[in-house]
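Sample entry (445 residues):
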Amino acid sequence: MTVNNKAALGAFAVLTAGLLPSVAHADFIKDSKATLALRNFYFNNDYREQTTSAGSKLAEWGQGFVLDYKSGYTDGTVGFGLDAQGLLGLTLDSSPSRHQGSSMIPSESNGDPVDSWSHAGVTGKMRFSKTELRYGNLQPKLPILVSNDGRVLPQTFEGGMITSNEIDKLKLVAGRLEHAVGRASTNRTGLAVAGGTQESNEFWFGGGDYLVNDQLTVQYYYANLEDYYKQHFAGLVHVYPISKDSSFKTDLRYFKTDADGANDSAAGRTAGYKLSGYSNGTGGKIDNDTWSAIFTYSLGGHAFTAGYQSVSENSNFTQLNQGGLPNEGATGTSVYLFTDRLISSFIRAGEQTRFGQYAYNFSEVGVPGLTASVTYLKGTQITAANGNGHGEEWERDIAVDYVVQSGSFKGVGLGWRNGMLRTNVGGDYDQDQNRLILSYTLPLL
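Predicted structure, serialized as tokens:
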């Protein structure tokens, strides 16, 4: 769906001007909040003189607007509220030769980049004691599902979710999702995995975090994408305080993912309920165990991270990914792994990844708001998609962020991301990537 910039800006202005007064007389207005988040995003991905089906370089510039309204709750034992979100993206610079497959900006029917794209969502909510029920537009951040926010606009989902904190130190979450809207799309889709061409509209999940003590948190979550997979997650996070300004953090994660429904039958996989990549001769059956151990030593502004991740050999690791569905802009996903980086995710069958990161917070030397990090990962023993041979890949990422702390531009954020990927895995490309992000959130209420 494509509209011109003037029409899109007009619709967005109507939403901004009309939405807020309409709730101004509601009882829950005194606790309402509204913000307008602006994100200016330049994205450049150089395929190192290798020619993909769409060219050797992606280079685009876009502007995003996210209007977020969150109401308070009505009085009474059971409180009710309403949230609303309007999203608008504008193409500032692109061309057919520098646009590739809706990675950054949606595509016209002929493959050219659109001038603008937009969509909106509403969320009804209900609160009882320390339990909240939400239904409608959602952006979950859970071990079994992480909403992607790596481009101009965020990925969103539709469904219901309940969060309970009734038991001291225990947070419980459960829900069901039905649809997704990609970060570069105006259209909602059903749900799938990477390589899947058939939609599922049943993603059930549940789990919780338990704070054993001030240093130790344990987690368990379960997710089921009907006709694709069942996934168990167990996690442990421990922070050991060494001194006033130093600590040692241990983060352990384990995922067990197995086929469900149509994906568990040859006929179902042939119909499109399949996972891409190597699958041990099964044609896309999901069968994976992935674990990782992450250790971080912090001292003042310094943070040193090292770790290891192992992906079992029968299939790739998977979570929700709509990129294989016949719908423009549905691509783009996140997974709850440290290895989910700028360019690669290091989740192929058999892949063994060693990684390290150094991060520094410059507030320690009198520059609050400035942070930087450098990360290196190397994955080996990758099973080729055809099962013949093994591959390797490595990635080096640099991130620098600064948030203005005072003055007229207080709150303005500037970010730079630089990634370098080198791989000998068939079908993949060496890449150099740069992202420049300028962001600001304007409070409206």
